[in-house]
Amino acid sequence: MAPRKRKFENRDLPVGLCCKMVRGQQRFRYRYPSGKDIFFPLKTQKYEAIEAATIFNAKHRNPALKMILDHDEFNKPMSHWIKVVIERVRNEELNTRLLSKGRYRAFVNDTMRLDELLGDILSKSISLQHVNEFLDKYASGKSNEVYNRKITFLKKIFSYICDMSGMVLNPADRKKRKPKQAKQRKRLNIEYFNLILNASNSWLNIAMRLSLQTTHAVNEISLAKYKDCEWFNAPIVENGLTVYGVLRIHRQKVQNKEASRVEIPITKQLKKIIDDSKRDNIASPYIVHALLGRKKGLANGLTHPTQLTPVYISRAMSDLRDELNLYGNFDKPQRPTFHEIRALSIFLYDKMGIDPQERAAHTDAESTKVYMKDHVKWVKIQPAELVI
Q1: Per the structure, how many domains does the chain have?
Q2: Is there a domain that residue 109 lies in?
Q3: What distance separates the 2 farthest-apart alpha carbons in the chain?
Q4: Over the stretch 190-209, which tens digit does the pLDDT of each residue have?
Q5: How far apart, in whole angstroms, are the C-alpha atoms of residue 261 and residue 380?
Q6: Residue 222: is its pLDDT beyond 90?
Q7: What parts of the sequence cross the membrane (predicted)?
Q8: Which domain holds residue 165?
Q9: Which end of the chain is more exposed for a tag (fewer CB within 10 A), N or C?
Q10: Are residues 143 and 271 located together in one domain of the fold?
């Protein structure tokens, strides 16, 4: 269908621009190729409207210019670059253990969201406006921490695309981060810890006691295996405590640091926890374990039917906390979770005069702070235990 012939008074105006009467006043209107209309501000001069429309048309309505832009072999849709970036992150970060499996899955999930929102847009057309669109859709109403994590994600994926010439500048670098929020969660006290512990099932009881005794978070507790324990031929005495062996833990949050692998002495209390975990007669390689009768198979990241995810363990404690109506006068985000057991543990050790951050043995003639085992560095931890 042929376009409608322009009115006489608009015959000398660029394509898309026309003059209309609006509420008794003459206004210049521009119609985008998409069909959307905008009106120029009042008192806009004719030459100004013509200049603006001419510049816009030269960029967006000129087939020859579009042909030149399309010739840029690196200016490809975001969906193309997203696939390439995922592959690079897998090879360069996941396979080299610079990135944990959990964080890699979170990264891939975010790339899928980015692909859904901006996948059709050419990479060199991505701007701060698109960054804001992504944040508005996927971080609106979330905490400042989540908001800032999404900015970090965008910076990361755009930096990879810049590295491959798909973008000239990283638009996420121009985005302002939100200030760090004060911690809302209340501390878990020993009285409420014991109430939850006494009401807990067998595997949650083991998880809570193991976290309290080792000062480690749920990520490490959920991965602790019996094979990580090395038992001595005969108990020894260190710092006035009987030590039966060592439990080796690879800390997930700082897994690439030298101090990420720690060797914790198995004292009487820790040995009792490990022994108690075997009383259910469930064959499992994991110290914290359960048979849940999963109907949908194993969740992502699990390798054994008796293995529990960190989220499942943490949620079980939170549910029990609420069933007991503990901290019920606080909003849910303020109620202590499993993670607060670690803070409680550090607090209790501190009351005993033991600094959990400095439990690594000092270098001297008889012991070393860091030693090698199977070409891996391990940090020795001084024996200590909590009796509650």
Answers
A1: 3
A2: yes
A3: 104
A4: 999 999 999 999 999 999 99
A5: 9
A6: yes
A7: none
A8: 78-174
A9: N
A10: no
